[in-house]
Write a structure and sequence with these properties.
The chain is of the alpha/beta class and 373 residues long. The chain contains 13 helices and 11 strands. The structure holds pyridoxal-5'-phosphate.
Amino acid sequence: MRVPLVDLAAQEASVADDVLAAIARVGREASFILGPHVEAFERRLARDCGTARAVGVASGTDAIELTLRALGIGAGDAVVTPALSFVAAAEAIATTGARPVFCDVEPGTMNASARTLEGALDRARSAGLRVRALVPVHLFGRCAPLPELCDLARREGLWLVEDAAQAIGARDEIGRPAGGAGDAGCFSFFPTKCLGAWGDGGAVVTAREDLADRLRRLRAHGAAAPYVHAELGRNSRLDAVQAAVLLTKIDRLGAWQEARARIAGRYRAELARLPLVLPDEPAAPAAHAWHAFVVRCEGRDALAEQLLEQGIQTRVYYPVPLHRQPCFAALDPPRLPVAERACESALALPIFPTMSDAQQAHVIEQIERFFRS
Ligand SMILES: Cc1ncc(COP(=O)(O)O)c(C=O)c1O
């Protein structure tokens, strides 16, 4: 039996008629750039995140970079972000001209905490760096501990920018939607994300009107009024076709999240007795978005190989921690043992809303077989 890591085609087929009708409306109205579809999606996203504003941009990476630029971060500044993540946040920090400073993650959650961020802050300050912001990542769809991170940011006078690219629909430990607790929350709508576009897309949510206004300028060439460029921005608008796709799909997000949570619950119950470290389910009112179900174990590569032989696709998130990436080699990499160990032992199992019971049973059975042999 074939079990892909994510079956995007099956999920998109379930919404294709509605999505195609929404795209046709954009075409018939010829409202391709910003306009009513983008505004309607921004209103809906802001409402769902409990923030006053949302600004649609071209990708999750641009969402982070433009937010940092809108907060005045650039050359001479430093920004702390976890070493265990996709490269986008670190890349966005570096692209502003600021220096990424990597922190370790907690062994239980694989997320940054106040403790690990403070470790990196101390290191950065002893090296004479001027830290201006924290960019925690809600890795695999689980919120970083936002209450303690908000306290830390406030105490230290730092901006808090949530990389919520993997976490739309998640809630933190006091029940706030991912993206809605910091000064800004950044989302990616890359197709495999829990809410995926039919191409690239991203957005920033924020309660701060001044930040939203500046982001709107930066995504459209820094224009304060037509053909008046107060500052240099770029072209990074959320495409109206993608906004129409997202606005159609966002109504299904709740049901898809329930399906993901059900699949995660079954993995957690049925794999519990095996020598695997399983991701835990945060207690309500927190909610995990289960963008990925990542286990850790000895012999990870052999397990992945055996599963592939049985038609099961897995993925290593992430094989190389960011502080060991060649592009950051000049930054004098610190030792971040938890992130480094996670890169040697983590394996993402298939999880997607249309995954059948039989497909999941096959995955569980083959993992059991691996540990029996
Ligand atoms: C944690 C994280 N941050 C940021 C991004 C960047 O998003 P995008 O691919 O839309 O630029 C991604 C997406 O892949 C991600 O996983």
